[in-house]
Amino acid sequence: MVAFEPSDPGFADRIRKSYARQQIMAFIGAELVELRPGYCEIHLPYRPELSQQDGFFHAGIISTIADSAGGYASYTLMAADTRVLTVEYKMNLLAPARGERLIARGQVIKNGRTLVIAKADVGAIQDGEETPCATLLGTLISLADNTKR
Amino acid sequence: MVAFEPSDPGFADRIRKSYARQQIMAFIGAELVELRPGYCEIHLPYRPELSQQDGFFHAGIISTIADSAGGYASYTLMAADTRVLTVEYKMNLLAPARGERLIARGQVIKNGRTLVIAKADVGAIQDGEETPCATLLGTLISLADNTKR
Amino acid sequence: MVAFEPSDPGFADRIRKSYARQQIMAFIGAELVELRPGYCEIHLPYRPELSQQDGFFHAGIISTIADSAGGYASYTLMAADTRVLTVEYKMNLLAPARGERLIARGQVIKNGRTLVIAKADVGAIQDGEETPCATLLGTLISLADNTKR
Amino acid sequence: MVAFEPSDPGFADRIRKSYARQQIMAFIGAELVELRPGYCEIHLPYRPELSQQDGFFHAGIISTIADSAGGYASYTLMAADTRVLTVEYKMNLLAPARGERLIARGQVIKNGRTLVIAKADVGAIQDGEETPCATLLGTLISLADNTKR
Prior knowledge:
Four copies of one chain form a homotetramer.
Chain A lengths: L10 H11 L1 H6 L2 E6 L2 E7 L13 H17 L6 E12 L7 E11 L3 E12 L2 E16 L5
Antiparallel strand pairs in A: 1-2, 2-4, 3-6, 4-5, 5-6
């Protein structure tokens, strides 16, 4: 994997502020655990409120943390005066997402001028053992941050 | 659009029971509003807890109701002794999901023996006017319902 | 479906020139049949050289005309001094693509400033009857046409 | 990456026969270069007939070899009396596919009972140097081989 050079040395601080504004993350109990250039990791402990009809994590909740992990992985490489939006993503479910915790690892695949392509792999931890449960492939766009004007 | 013939005349009751077990739906406040053969509509009123960093509905939450709308649209056509799982989906975001309510309309495109292809269109209602904000295209699988054994 | 207003009244001529440069289209025998604002239709007669292992049209060939139909549907709405590139697409196969002809109908879903979201539905004509065989959902980007500088 | 155990020791021979029936491969000049359990590599030398409007490989042609690479990677793990069909795939284009040769590397991500999830990474070789140009994520299905009845 290529090493990425962030254009904004203060990327981690910028992202933690953005993450804190994503109220959905606190609502479901997701934690931003790691940030590196081109990489972001988010953890989500199990709660029955997050489940689908069989008691496993709902696919939409898996994609909620996977999308944010891929999005913030991308945002680590964007300029300080930008914001990031998801254009689209595709997610394959690999196994039932059962266990006490999900881990979503977002990773930039291609850092383009306007668009960034990122993936996110999600694993489910059950009795301390991790099973891959989903993989996401998506496109993010960098926009001028009008909210600062 | 082709009219679909459900194999299980009791599909609506079966789906309402499954929906009630999806605890995530009550947790975020989503309502199952309409069920017809090959069709399912889910509404979601706005709450700040569902927002991303700009205050709009988070993409993952949009996909949560879109995936369930597409999944239950598919499940209307499946046999009584089956359960439905999402194989994968792809979602494009068309506009910021801002407003007081989201509406996800799931619709079966192809009803295969094992796999069902469905789409879901999501609109955001602001000041009574609806704007398309996302479209999802996904694959569902019908499995024997082992939970009844 | 919304009616689209093209910014370049000469879009049809511009697209026919671009299409003529897509050598793959002549190579496989695809024909550009219709162009309207936000819409493009491409036909492809069957030839054994285009088949997969069962003698049907290969998925990659289906996507070749579907991608071009979606791309040129998008390009009808772009400015005269731009070029169009595919960012990504997702395609679901609905039925074996058997028959004497494929028809790909590209349609713009959302015409954004930089990005355009388009779909393409592909039908297979067998004995004069059309069966839906694939549906594509994709993202296109409009770039400044440097080749004119 | 997990090591996969093929259920059919004669998988390579079975796949080479299937590949030979995919007439599109000979038509565009693609070569099946490597087969291992869960892996398949296909090469495609450049020809102007395969190009889009800027002279690069057309996205549909990239997906033609990527889809076959992912499909045959999946088929290495399927039983002897089955056939493989593509359910769907999603492809992101990472860079213009320019150069003298494309290499598509298909790899199984999840080998399920009925469905297989596979990816394919495509690189373009220009002046001996490889640049990633596309990545595909798809779903394949294993079907009973009725053609043998």
